[in-house]
Amino acid sequence: MNISKSQLNDIMKTYLEKPAQTENRAHIKAKEAKKDEVVLSEDALKFAKLVKEASKAEDIRAEKVNELKSKISSGTYNIDGKLIADKIIEEASAEKLI
Prior knowledge:
Shape: rod-shaped
Radius of gyration: 36 Å
Oligomer: single chain
Order of helices and strands: HHHH
Number of strands: 0
Helix content: over 70%
Distance between the termini: 87 Å
């Protein structure tokens, strides 16, 4: 069997084109197959829901904040050091229990 140069070129062309097409198809399938996915635990979903609800809540203590701001700016705000120390000790004790 004799193969002419033109037939050889056609055969080579076919073999050279096929792998490129196959690689392109494989690349496209690989892109389609790999999709990112995020799965959140029930605790994370509950936490997100609570944060969203808390952000919608009105500032209930706005009057208290305004009162403290006015006392601080006027210089009449007094801090009770004993209460602060008690709170620090209370929080440190609670952290040890956790």
